[in-house]
Amino acid sequence: MLSIFTPYLCQENDSAIVCSGSGETIRIDPIAENVLRFRSSFSGKIFDEDWTLIKPSQKPFADIAIDRVKAMVKCGNIVAIISIDGVVKYYSDRGNVLFEELWIDYRVNNANLLKARNYRHVYGDLYKVELYLKARDNEYIYGMGQYAIGYLNLKGCSLELAHRNTQVSIPFALFIRPDEKLYYGFVWNNPCIGRAEFAKNWTMFSCEASKQIDYLVIYGKTPEDVVRKYMELYGKPPLLPEWAFGFWQSKLRYRTQEEILSIAREYKRRNLPLSIIVIDFFHWTNQGDWKFDPRYWPNPKEMVEELKKLGVKVMVSIWPTVDVASENYGEMVRRGLLIKTEKGIPILQTFRGLTTYVDFTNPEAGKFVWEKVKENYYKYGIKLFWLDEAEPEFGWDYGYYNVLPYHYDNIRYYLGNAVEVGNIYPFYYTKAFYDGLISEGEKDSVLLVRAAWLGSQRFPMVMWSGDIPSTFESLKKQVKAGLNTSLAGMVYWTTDIGGFYGGDPEDPEFRELIVRWFQFG
């Protein structure tokens, strides 16, 4: 069989391996002990964007060897080898193969069916990229964020790498091969919209638009070693204050100041413990005003003071939506602080108004919103914030089927088009409020957030699982979704007790569900 290929030529560069061949550039860096980072592109250069990765200040010691047929880098107990035909494999120090690229072409004396690394030009320096790895029958796969699909072991699952209400993409996967006592992690270091497939015939990660393939491989002697190293590279969860682990009371919704005070007083009268009470959405004058409607909340300062005497802290709901009728809309448009559309009217949601979203990937937008929150909530003593709609959620179709679908390619953030950077939004949404609280000297605050991404765990936040069904099946799925979310770094995670959609208080089965959900927590 005719076998013709362009050999990959490799050299050492700043303690890394850099190779080029077939129009592609590859770089493999040791970035921490037992961790290697792979990047490749079809544009002739490797981009230094780290996203939320926290690289150690010093590179670890690594052995690099290059000869005529391969290049090798060893960092701690992990080894990567790239052969002259461009195939990449990862090994443990014991010689076990961890990951191996899947090529079905001349490299294995086959017709050209599949390449392990694929690039299809989109526009500019963006490509649709795909990475294929060999699958193993004996592997168990955990993590990846919150997918209420009913599986703890994700082997055999196909996942959308995108945030939606009840779905959160945190692309860290923990691989376990128990019969071989092998434990290793894979981080898809890319905030793009894409897919992950853990099929029988391959493991695949893809981006709809990206400048490069970018991932990390982490090796450990135990699962704990792998997760610990992942946390070191993306942020360790802080210890929340003790009161944050108490009971939180919320409903959709308390409409007035007097109503919420009456609830707290009744808890006190019955001698029931209550740590936090939540003021949900539409307590405001307009979406994007970020302030109480004085008709229903006439004296927030007195309300907060009374609740404090009762031993109850106040949390308020924040939405990142900005209505065209908001008092802040004009200024935010002029200053470029809102998410835009590539074409068409910049309206991204139609729930109770015509709204777009704050573009928290723009640092100035976060500062602007915090100043409004500081003036209208924080000054009254409110220091806890529920960051809802954190995906963000595009196009609620109330009465209009598919009016505003999830066309990510039409969404423009400060950092880039949504297909390239969309999944990083909740990280910067959370960061804006964390930075604001820190600037005021607050070190014991807590944020409740409906989405997260790699690194969100470094903030004092609890992730909540969104608007889920009120069924026993849903409860069962939440247990598994929560475990995988925690393994992806978000160790503080919770649900709506009893679910959100449906449920009849007169139905004995629903009453049983509420009891069981309380037991779950």
Automatic annotation (TrEMBL):
InterPro entries: Gal_mutarotase_sf_dom, GH, Glyco_hydro_31_TIM, Glycosyl_Hydrolase_31
Highest taxon of source: Archaea
Segments forming domain Glycoside hydrolase family 31 TIM barrel: 237-521
Keyword check for Transit peptide: no
Keywords, in A-Z order: Glycosidase, Hydrolase
UniProt keyword Aminoacyl-tRNA synthetase present: no
GO molecular function annotations of the record: carbohydrate binding; hydrolase activity, hydrolyzing O-glycosyl compounds
GO BP: carbohydrate metabolic process
CDD domains: GH31_N, GH31_xylosidase_XylS
Family under the similarity heading: Belongs to the glycosyl hydrolase 31 family.
Protein name: Glycoside hydrolase family 31 protein
Lineage, broadest ranks: Archaea, Thermoproteota, Thermoprotei, Desulfurococcales, Desulfurococcaceae
